[in-house]
Amino acid sequence: MLLSAGRPIRQSRRVQLFSYCWALWTALAVIAVVCAFWHWGSLMLGDIVLPGPVTVFKLSIELLRNYETAEIPHTLFRASIAISAAVVTGVALGLLTGLSKTLALFCRPIISILLGTPPIIWVVLAIFWFSTGDSSAIFTTYIAVTPLMFASALQSMLSIDRNFEEVMRVYKVSYVRRIHHLYWPHLLNQLLPAFNIAFASGLKIAIMAELLGTADGIGAQIGVARTMLETDVVMAYIVILLLIIYLVEYLFIEPLKIIFLPWAQRRG
């Protein structure tokens, strides 16, 4: 059992639930402040330039009720495939590369090139290579998210304390226990926040790819709204996008942090 000042690091379920609710309440408070400034800006600029939050929220609810007509499933399908494949590929390759410092030095320039390439470039290239449709949007999202997960996994492997590894070898700690007590907690501490960023970035890139390279999906609907000067529709889709990101963060990422990273919650 891990101890801090003679007390267990792992908190009780009640304390963990309170920490989770407090984080959720803080997020809601920040959203309320943003909505207040948003409402003020709408009064100053007018509904055509900046629709008010009440109007946008009503339209967002209507779009969610008619989610098939709003073509939300198309975007979620493409984004989920691309992000899942990118996470698996990036983490696996990053962990394997992190086992060798020489290989890591060789791969770093490649990752820097991929990370430095703007997503819009990949959108254009994907349209050239795959034409318009699902393939171009999935490829663009995949190629943009994979380097993020690769770099995070690589850095997490390289930042493992080698002194701890040496101590475990000296005391002949089994490899299974090394994974459980050293590698698993350390990697999760690095990869969970990276996955949160990768999901949000991947979803936004998928929508951007749809705007230019597909005839359906949220991106295509935003393109139609841009043509019709429907600012409220664009804002409604932004709200839906943020809602999806928050749901993934607070229903998936945060519970995993509470369960597997209790010391991080205690430190926070």
From TrEMBL:
<keyword id="KW-0813">Transport</keyword>
<feature type="transmembrane region" description="Helical">
    <location>
        <begin position="20"/>
        <end position="40"/>
    </location>
</feature>
<dbReference type="GO" id="GO:0055085">
    <property type="term" value="P:transmembrane transport"/>
</dbReference>
<keyword id="KW-1003">Cell membrane</keyword>
<feature type="transmembrane region" description="Helical">
    <location>
        <begin position="137"/>
        <end position="160"/>
    </location>
</feature>
<feature type="transmembrane region" description="Helical">
    <location>
        <begin position="181"/>
        <end position="203"/>
    </location>
</feature>
<dbReference type="GO" id="GO:0005886">
    <property type="term" value="C:plasma membrane"/>
</dbReference>
<keyword id="KW-0812">Transmembrane</keyword>
<keyword id="KW-1133">Transmembrane helix</keyword>
<dbReference type="InterPro" id="IPR000515">
    <property type="entry name" value="MetI-like"/>
</dbReference>
<comment type="similarity">
    <text>Belongs to the binding-protein-dependent transport system permease family.</text>
</comment>
<dbReference type="Pfam" id="PF00528">
    <property type="entry name" value="BPD_transp_1"/>
</dbReference>
<feature type="transmembrane region" description="Helical">
    <location>
        <begin position="76"/>
        <end position="98"/>
    </location>
</feature>
<protein>
    <submittedName>
        <fullName>ABC transporter permease subunit</fullName>
    </submittedName>
</protein>
<dbReference type="InterPro" id="IPR035906">
    <property type="entry name" value="MetI-like_sf"/>
</dbReference>
<feature type="domain" description="ABC transmembrane type-1">
    <location>
        <begin position="72"/>
        <end position="252"/>
    </location>
</feature>
<feature type="transmembrane region" description="Helical">
    <location>
        <begin position="110"/>
        <end position="131"/>
    </location>
</feature>
<feature type="transmembrane region" description="Helical">
    <location>
        <begin position="234"/>
        <end position="253"/>
    </location>
</feature>
<keyword id="KW-0472">Membrane</keyword>
